[in-house]
């Protein structure tokens, strides 16, 4: 973001999405690996709470950020004259995203605990939620309501809304140029750049949906089934779904770099920051990228 041309609303949202991905990498991925390779929970009470809390916060922050990106592109392309409304509210909206994400994750932070059971020959430790139990049916109603809320309201519904939004955006972009209409070269270039940006964002949304959907399905399935009813194949499925969800944090940077030349150039500059560089070559590359960028998207 040191380059002025990169300081756009969409780019700030993408950086926020990258922060959510980094949260998964730092607090979740390696914790799951250690848990799978060891017997019992060996990482203590702190990571017992932080691991699940960070995963919920990352999921909610990612969904809300993707929603903001969708609305930003919707206003920027469908209602171009109202695009500045989103720009003025960008910082406040990011604050709301993380506030809501932390609020949604707080029940996990409170209820998640390290449990210890002492046997004659060993000590058993495991990490699990300690939700209130319904007094009449002995059914973990509160826990089921919470995870259903996270899966349906904070994942399925936003994904449907964003899918509809990007469908309208793509339709608008494809219907802009009418047959026989004379369009200036700059306008054509802007339309192409907008289309590339939307394709990149749709790819991010698609990969996010594919990576997280199996995990949420397995989570809800285990919540509405007792442990005795779960088949052995379910644990293999949950294992794969967990790492597929974690892989989303690694796939997003590949999409950023693969779809956008400005990100590739910025990555090259960052990787060469400790080496001697040719100032004229760097300036020429930046000028070329700036020429290909538009004032609306500038990704």
Automatic annotation (TrEMBL):
- Domain named G-protein coupled receptors family 1 profile is located at 1-256
Record PROSITE patterns: G_PROTEIN_RECEP_F1_1, G_PROTEIN_RECEP_F1_2
A single Gene Ontology molecular function, please? neuropeptide Y receptor activity
Gene3D superfamilies per record: Rhodopsin 7-helix transmembrane proteins (1.20.1070.10)
Q: What is its main location?
A: membrane
Task: Provide the protein's localization.
Answer: Membrane
Protein family (similarity comment)? Belongs to the G-protein coupled receptor 1 family.
Instruction: Write the protein's name.
Output: Substance-P receptor-like
**Native source species:** Octopus vulgaris (Common octopus)
């Amino acid at each position: 973001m040191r380059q002025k041309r990169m300081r756009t609303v969409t780019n700030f949202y993408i950086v926020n999405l990258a922060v959510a991905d980094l949260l998964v990498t730092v607090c979740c991925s390696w914790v799951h690996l250690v848990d799978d390779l060891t017997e019992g929970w060996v990482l203590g009470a702190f990571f017992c709470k932080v691991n699940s809390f960070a995963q919920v916060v990352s999921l909610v922050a990612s969904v809300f950020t993707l929603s903001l990106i969708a609305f930003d592109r919707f206003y920027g392309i469908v209602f171009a004259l109202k695009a500045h409304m989103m720009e003025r509210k960008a910082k406040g909206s990011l604050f709301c995203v993380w506030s809501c994400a932390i609020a949604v994750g707080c029940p996990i932070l409170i209820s998640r605990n390290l449990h210890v059971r002492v046997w004659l020959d060993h000590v058993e430790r495991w990490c699990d939620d300690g939700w209130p139990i319904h007094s009449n049916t002995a059914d973990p109603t509160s826990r089921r309501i919470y995870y259903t809320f996270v899966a349906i309201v904070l994942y399925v519904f936003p994904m449907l809304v964003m899918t509809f939004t990007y469908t309208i955006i793509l339709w608008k972009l494809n219907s802009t140029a009418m047959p026989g209409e004379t369009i200036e070269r700059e306008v054509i270039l802007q339309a192409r750049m907008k289309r590339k940006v939307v394709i990149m964002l749709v790819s991010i949304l698609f990969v996010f949906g594919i990576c997280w959907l199996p995990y949420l399905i397995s989570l809800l399935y285990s919540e509405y089934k007792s442990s005795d009813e779960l088949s052995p194949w379910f644990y293999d499925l949950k294992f794969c779904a967990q790492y597929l969800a974690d892989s989303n944090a690694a796939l997003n940077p590949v999409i950023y770099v693969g779809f956008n030349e400005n990100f590739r150039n910025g990555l090259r500059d960052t990787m060469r920051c400790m080496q001697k560089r040719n100032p004229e070559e760097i300036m020429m590359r930046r000028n070329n990228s700036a020429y290909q960028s538009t004032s609306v998207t500038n990704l």
